[in-house]
Amino acid sequence: MAATVGSAPARRPAVRGSGEAVIEYRDIHKAFDVPVLAGVDLTVMRGETLSLVGPSGTGKSVLLKTTIGLIVPDRGDVRVDGESVYSTRRGRLEEIRHRVGYVFQYAALFDSLTVYENVAQGLHDDVAKKLGSREVLRRVVDSLEDVNLDAAQVLAKLPAELSGGMRKRVGLARALVGRPDIILYDEPVTGLDPVNTAAVDKLISDIGQKTGVTSILVTHDIEGALLLSDRIALLDHGRVRFVGTPEEFRRSEDPLVRAFADREAAAAAALKIMEEP
Predict the structure, then answer these.
(1) N- or C-end of the chain: fewer Cβ atoms within 10 A?
(2) Is residue 73 part of a domain?
(3) What is the rounded CA–CA span in Å between residue 40 and residue 29?
């Protein structure tokens, strides 16, 4: 899976997949002293990439974390393939987590662990024991190659020995090593320069098209969201204010949507000016 650094990802077709709902957020409320989520209803379809955008502090990352119980909503429910994540059935949450890869903001690598050890952390203990050390190594090497890293060069390195872009790729490899059918991305390009941002965007696009994985992407990178996504959902004041295709996002007359769309247009114009001789 080759990625050309600095190239833009190809536009994906409008909502792919079977039309089945995979993830359903139903009337999700969450407060931390003040309300953050105030009744989110949103459905993610199988095989699609959905981007969550919106003003800072509007609950995008909080909503993402409710998907696998990292944050428990005060009210409402999350359903995966029709079954509640928070049901009383014993072990249900662990079953969900086995199916999900999570890409944390700033990669969230363990400083004292090697690249190999960090990526292997993406395998649940019972899965790793069942696979055995040789198969775990093969999975780690395959995942690093999937994100265009030379495993032989990086396996023994510590995170401090890697560039910011490489750390992001290791974080992505960790999410892939368990071969998930759902990937949750929390600000995957935060802190990256434009070249590395484009490279990570390309990888996310390639992974989605190669594997058919269902992806939710929390991002402030509107340009990337428009290129990568089948649909975009905009959160505002703890609720879904808009959801639609990138083209519908661009055409929307909603003032807040327009503000985000215009920001993307302004960024593109600035880049064009910078490229002029």
Answers:
(1) C
(2) yes
(3) 7
Residue 118's SS3 state is helix
Helix (H, G, I), strand (E, B) or coil at 238: coil
The domain tally of the chain equals: 1
Identify the domain containing residue 191 by its residue range.
Answer: 21-107+180-275
229 in a structural domain: yes
For residue 52, being part of any structural domain is answered with yes
Among 180, 150, 159, 163, which Cα is nearest to 117's?
Answer: 159
Instruction: Encode pLDDT of 44-100 as tens digits.
Output: 999 999 999 998 888 999 999 999 989 999 999 999 998 888 876 777 788 888 889
CATH of the domain at 186: 3.40.50.300
Mean pLDDT, range 5-13, rounded to an integer:
40
pTM: 0.83
d(CA 214, CA 17): 9
Residue 205 burial (C-beta neighbours within 10 Å; 0-12, 13-18, 19+): buried
The answer as to whether 49 is a domain residue is yes
